[in-house]
Amino acid sequence: MSNLDPAEIDKFQSFANTWWDPQGPLHTLHEINPLRLQYINEKVSGGLRGKRVLDVGCGAGILSESMAWQGAEVLGIDLAEDAIQAGKQHAVERGIEMQYRAVAVEDLAAAEPDSYDVVTCMEMLEHVPDPASIIASCAKLVKPGGSVFLSTLNRNPKSYLYAIVGAEYLLGLLPRGTHDYEKFLRPSELLDMIRASGLRLRDLQGMHYDPWRRVARLTGDVSVNYLCHCQKPA
């Protein structure tokens, strides 16, 4: 429970009632989610159906639910309890069988090592004090041969301009104060954490969001948003 920022938890607690509004303050999460889901489905051998999946930092479950719709057995975890309750309620309303828990990933890793075929941690690493601890826990939770998916924001002048000045202040794509530039991670820093955790990098790609068409696509440019696929050695 030490690897959290109370201000970050409060921030995401405040979005609980609007998390599932596709036109609400977190609408960009809805709009990038089809690309995230496609990327995960394509990288996991045989797709998500029948896989045991953990979604770390799930919020109210936009990605979690979409993976459950693919036939995965999904557990979403987050420390924002109001968001977790919103996720549970939404799943019940839509008749989706999945689980949510308000638990730290480090605590779950201690209790359930080598338990999941797939672990995802998307748009979360830039919101915690110690992202290396999160990655190490994801590596501990995934089964040998299983996949871990991570996404975050690069730290450079371009990402500051695009992700904070542009997205939060000029275009209003995200609520102001959503991101702290100092917590962004350069790919080299993320790769060091991945190697230290014992995972192996399999793929690294940029994710470009078009604010006018409100869709996302993969790109070779990792200067702003980027995501990666890692694997635990069998």
TrEMBL record:
<protein>
    <recommendedName>
        <fullName>Ubiquinone biosynthesis O-methyltransferase</fullName>
        <ecNumber>2.1.1.222</ecNumber>
        <ecNumber>2.1.1.64</ecNumber>
    </recommendedName>
</protein>
<feature type="binding site">
    <location>
        <position position="36"/>
    </location>
    <ligand>
        <name>S-adenosyl-L-methionine</name>
    </ligand>
</feature>
<comment type="pathway">
    <text>Cofactor biosynthesis; ubiquinone biosynthesis.</text>
</comment>
<feature type="binding site">
    <location>
        <position position="57"/>
    </location>
    <ligand>
        <name>S-adenosyl-L-methionine</name>
    </ligand>
</feature>
<keyword id="KW-0489">Methyltransferase</keyword>
<dbReference type="InterPro" id="IPR029063">
    <property type="entry name" value="SAM-dependent_MTases_sf"/>
</dbReference>
<dbReference type="GO" id="GO:0010420">
    <property type="term" value="F:polyprenyldihydroxybenzoate methyltransferase activity"/>
</dbReference>
<keyword id="KW-0949">S-adenosyl-L-methionine</keyword>
<feature type="binding site">
    <location>
        <position position="122"/>
    </location>
    <ligand>
        <name>S-adenosyl-L-methionine</name>
    </ligand>
</feature>
<dbReference type="GO" id="GO:0061542">
    <property type="term" value="F:3-demethylubiquinol 3-O-methyltransferase activity"/>
</dbReference>
<keyword id="KW-0808">Transferase</keyword>
<keyword id="KW-0831">Ubiquinone biosynthesis</keyword>
<comment type="similarity">
    <text>Belongs to the methyltransferase superfamily. UbiG/COQ3 family.</text>
</comment>
<comment type="function">
    <text>O-methyltransferase that catalyzes the 2 O-methylation steps in the ubiquinone biosynthetic pathway.</text>
</comment>
<dbReference type="GO" id="GO:0032259">
    <property type="term" value="P:methylation"/>
</dbReference>
<dbReference type="GO" id="GO:0102208">
    <property type="term" value="F:2-polyprenyl-6-hydroxyphenol methylase activity"/>
</dbReference>
<dbReference type="InterPro" id="IPR010233">
    <property type="entry name" value="UbiG_MeTrfase"/>
</dbReference>
<dbReference type="Pfam" id="PF13489">
    <property type="entry name" value="Methyltransf_23"/>
</dbReference>
<feature type="binding site">
    <location>
        <position position="78"/>
    </location>
    <ligand>
        <name>S-adenosyl-L-methionine</name>
    </ligand>
</feature>
